[in-house]
Design brief:
The protein has about 140 residues and is low in regular secondary structure. It contains one helix and two strands.
Amino acid sequence: MIFLARYQLVVTRRKEEESQSSSIYYQSDIWTPTVVFADFINNETLLGEDLVAWVTASFLHIPHAEDVPNTVTVGNRVGFLLRPYNFFDEDPSIFSPGSVYFEKGQDAGLCNVNPVACIPHLAACVPDLPPFSYQDL
């Protein structure tokens, strides 16, 4: 995983022999690793090929007094967000048929200006439930 830490994202051609970017045996001998991730990157063409995105995902843990005697890991999450950057010339959602446009000076609470403002009036089939209470509190 040390080689993958050099990059935040690497895209390579999918190959059966490249199923993992690291190995648990790396800690045994860091000078001759069983998997060398740097060898995966060889400037081959990606057009018309099945691709693999190697994403570096990690989290930062700042030690604090509650870590003693053990560190709680509940609530820690690791993830990534993959979104295009400068893929379109403008926001493609402006062409959505359900878009609502406001102009300066318009009242967004009027139904003829903002159809979403009328949804509570239109939703007559929604059951009228009593307010939620827990053990009559």
